[in-house]
Design goal:
DNA-binding; three-stranded mixed beta sheet; Arc Repressor Mutant, subunit A; Dna Ligase, domain 1; homodimer; 131 residues
Amino acid sequence: MSVKRSNSQKQIISVLKELKEEINAQDLYVKLRQRGDKLGLATVYRGLKALKLEGTIQERVSPTGESFYSVISKEHQHHLNCVGCGRSLSLDTCPLEQQALEPYQAENFKVFYHTLEFFGLCSVCQNQQPN
Amino acid sequence: MSVKRSNSQKQIISVLKELKEEINAQDLYVKLRQRGDKLGLATVYRGLKALKLEGTIQERVSPTGESFYSVISKEHQHHLNCVGCGRSLSLDTCPLEQQALEPYQAENFKVFYHTLEFFGLCSVCQNQQPN
DNA sequence: TTTTTATTTAGTAATGATTATCATTATACT
DNA sequence: AGTATAATGATAATCATTACTAAATAAAAA
């Protein structure tokens, strides 16, 4: 009784895996078409949703409201998000001790992954007039 | 040379402070009108943006893409976010040690606040057919 | 293999939160 | 007061995402 997985979902996972970088739905759509995969944008969204519910991929909603997807891996990334320009800088370490997370695995909630995001002003936006 | 702050911004802060709960822009707009404050929705958005850039309030973008605002305080909250139904359960402790965060205060990025979010399936959605 | 049924898909319209625009009003400065 | 600057309201525009519908594909039954 294995998980049924449509063609489009396989293609999506394939691209996400070789990327090893988060990507938004529309760029992913372009990447798939470039590879020659023939699928529509709505199908990409559907596939992403299904994979998200399986716990296979994770979603990060950026300050601009758009979602970025990536396969869930131990080497997850966190970001410094600028509230000025909206850009995100990747961090290469996670300040969370693994054992600190365990209590949250319980209480009737199956945790797939976590996100830790920092918000503030990047150097560029610090030296800039607000508008 | 103190910070200039418009009437609308004062009203927004006032409501956010008495709330002590995150709220989205449109509900905030309704709350302000109910108090008798006369301002438009666009002004609410403008005020929230300005206060965000000041580092006075924080924004959390929910999985559905809408933003929730609250005053930045030491007693910040984290959530368990269900990837199924989108509901958020508040946690009452932060697993992050304060000293673990200090390194991220440096490197040309002024950190106002952080968010730590857990994603997975709530008990209801675990016992439900995917659709 | 044909027929039947359920699933998947593409294309596109609809949605909804947020942002841009622009004319108007309030505020600051001389 | 008179002019420059900033703030505001109303509403149109934007844009990622979702809903919808009909067609295509796959799976199951006969």
